Amino acid sequence: MKQTRKLTGIALALTVATVGQAVRADEIVIATTGGLMRNMMEEYFYLPFAEASGTEVIPFDIEVPDQWARAEGMARTGDVEFDIVTATGPDLVGKAEILETIPCDDLANVKEYALPGACQPKGIARTTGGMVMTYNTDTFAGNEPRTWADFWDTEKFPGPRGLPDTGDRDWWLPTVALLADGVAKEDLYPLDLDRAYAKLDEIKPHIAVWWKTGNQVQQIMRDNEVAITMSYSGRALKVIQDGSPFAMAWDGAIRDTGYLAVLKNSPNTEGAMKFIDFFYGSAEGHPGFIQAVGYATSSTIGLSQLPEEEQKLYATYPANYELLVDPDFEWIGAHRDELRERWTNWLLQ
Amino acid sequence: MTRPGFFQPNGRQLSSAGILLLMAPFFMLIGFAFLYPLLSLLSLSVTEPEPGLSNYVRILDNPLYFKVLLRTLWIAVLVSVLALLMAFPVAMAMVSSSGPMAVFITAFVLLPFWSSVLVRTAAWAVLLQRNGIVNDLLQVVGITSEPIRLLYTQGAVVVAMTHVLLPFMVLPIYGALRNIPSDYDRAAAICGAGPLRRFAEVTVPLALPGVLGGVILVFLTALGYFITPALLGSPKEMMIATLISQQLREFLDWPFAAALVGVLTLFVTAITLVFSKVFRFDRMLGGQL
């Protein structure tokens, strides 16, 4: 309610600004999913940024599909209200025409501290995790699975398995199926869907749980409903830190990065870029933020401040980062409908 | 058998205009909150993406959607039958008992209404999980040697739905049974009918309106059931309500979801019409003689 009012206020201020050409907005509006991520961004970055720059950050809680629906409406009417939005990898391709290009080389801190690949033309990495294989270390004591081929090997690694039926499983699962079938990481895309689904047919009878939410994947690990499952790395991290006997195998985990993107013609594009630069350069913010949300930022001055043992639980830890699959969002974005239909039909069979 | 009607306080009868006025809020609510959204959704299914029946053709084209519909019908039938088998003895016990026992049984039937469907479904998830009570018990007794998969199966969905919908079966049957004068049973006994024959030829036929009311309530509710299959089932046991929600929320394909709603509505309407044709509706819901 308060945010809506503020937003209207900004819209008004913007109108005044456009008419008068004098008043400069000293606020930026950032659309993110609410809850933990919003609260921690606010605590570790929004408020320090406001203190350092005088530009106030106004968080706007919204789910991602809803956010895009509104952003596209705003682009059509020309009345843009968000400065920064939350984007997934495919969004950077699919929504490219309403997104401002990030001047990666002109932002000093980004140039200095960003991990390779973190700054894309249409968005910059906020947090990175992975769709990672997570297994019970008691069940597989002395015989630990390492790769997706091991996930498929039900004789050597017996036990109930879990896979996601949510998010981007329509390309996550064909991708890991191909890895299990022996395709090299570099040769995955374009995905050979016939081969991938033939491989998925093999594992289908062994899947005890098709999990639907991040909460559920944690619950099935804690309750021993599965011995091995694909999980969001941040969710697995919390289960491990809470003392459950689980570990992550990073080989072939799919990089899952949440991006910050800037809308074209946003009310305060300059402020948005300044925030991005601040985000990458703020050494104080990162450690606490990373520990609170369970996902690592892509600034090199971030994760390295944590104890070495703890760093290993995050996707951007160098030894893990080089094992990740880097999805080809260009191809995925172009084949979205086909991927979805194939997935839905396969699962319902 | 004459009884004072609802609209006859102190013997005065309300005019039909008065009755209509009293019913107006109900019909207005139905109109605004149910008919209008339903019809606008259905119109979406024949106008987008282009006018015509393309969305319905898509449902017929893909055998998977038909499979989901058949599965939904099958689960609804299964749940109705199971609920009937369990509800009838309970309703009989409610009618024949009195005092604290009657209160006790009634409380147990109504108790589930005091907690949300979500809580009851979650409770089943706890019972059926891999290291839950049911699996532990099976192993202690020696029926199984290791935990078996109970959760995320069709069985889990059917059991939990039967439990959740049971009161809707018990109450109409109880209503019908309570209205059977005990004289009939005694008269049949005097004429020499044994307990089984009295049950089959007196109690059951007279309870039939309540049974049909209960079956139709449970069956139609089960057809559109969402929470329980979503939480306890797996995608392999997807029911039509989950499919509709997936099309709406994940694929944002409103016209196609609307067409699925159209098909479901068609089925529900057809089944209701057949029921009301075969069995007279007025007798069914009231359960009166």
Descriptive notes:
The complex is a heterodimer of chains A (349) and B (289). By secondary structure, chain A is α/β, with parallel strands linked by helices. Chain A has 2 domains: 2-127 and 257-321, Periplasmic binding protein-like II (D-Maltodextrin-Binding Protein, domain 2, 3-Layer(aba) Sandwich); 129-256 and 327-348, D-Maltodextrin-Binding Protein, domain 2. Helices cover 45% and strands 18% of the residues of chain A. Chain A has 16 helices and 9 strands. In chain A, the strands form 2 sheets. In chain A, strands 3, 4, 5, 6, 7, 8 and 9 form a 7-stranded mixed β-sheet that branches. In chain A, helix 2 links the parallel strand 1 (27-32) and strand 2 (56-61). In chain A, helix 2 (36-53) runs antiparallel to helix 12, helix 7 (169-180) crosses helix 8 (193-203) and helix 9 runs parallel beside helix 10. The radius of gyration of chain A is 21 Å and the shape is globular. Mean pLDDT of chain A is 89; it is low at 14-24. Chain B is mainly alpha-helical. Chain B has a single domain, classed as MetI-like (MetI-like fold), CATH 1.10.3720. Chain B has helices spanning 16-47, 54-61, 63-96, 100-110, 117-128, 133-141, 154-178, 182-190, 195-223, 227-232, 240-249, 254-278, 281-286. In chain B, helix 7 crosses helix 9. The radius of gyration of chain B is 23 Å and the shape is globular. The A-B interface holds A 65, 160, 165, 208-210, 212, 223-225, 340, 344-345, 347-349 and B 62, 64, 67-68, 129-131, 149, 151-152, 230, 234-236, 238, 246, 251-252.
E-strand count of chain A: 9
Q: Do you know the CATH architecture of the largest domain in chain A?
A: 3-Layer(aba) Sandwich
> Averaged pLDDT of chain B, please?
86
Radius of gyration of chain A: 21 Å
CATH superfamily grouping of chain B: MetI-like
CATH topology of chain B: MetI-like fold
Using the alpha-carbon principal axes, give the shape of chain B: globular
Count of domain modules of chain B: 1
Oligomeric state: heterodimer
Largest beta-sheet details of chain B? none
Q: DSSP helix count of chain A?
A: 16
CA distance, first residue to last residue of chain A: 45 Å
- Helical content of chain A stands at 40-55%
**What portion of residues of chain A belong to β-strands?**
15-25%
